[in-house]
Amino acid sequence: MTFAGGADYRNHMDEPVLRLPGGELEYAVLFSVCELGAASAREVHEQVGATAGLAYTTIAKVLDRLHAKGLVARKRKGIAFVYRPRIARRVVEFARAQVSLRKLLGPAPLPAMATLVEAIESLDPELLEELERAVAARQGVRRGS
Of 32, 61, 107, 127, which shows the fewest CB atoms inside 10 Å? Predict the structure, then answer.
């Protein structure tokens, strides 16, 4: 699946395009639906909106936007809708990370990558070693080892 969001996400495949959530509230609502499996706007509001002091109608509008973007499915149950995720949370998080990295690295990624490596090392040298192991494992998968 290919995503488009605040920034355009493409994975170089001919797949349908889904738009990523447009902000932190949309992500929080989507991830709440993912966590609950199936939920009404009231249930999502209890989990996300009430704790943030948001109105029920705000959460309902966000769910409508997520439905319009194809990220959640909905089915009428009585007078309310029950929402279910159409895509796994890990897929959305991966796409979100790719969009963020593209913004961070920009058109000339090598200097930004060097700075990123230095920053990781300054935070925790073991993280740099873990990154090295992850890169080596990923290269092994690509080579078929």
Answer: 107
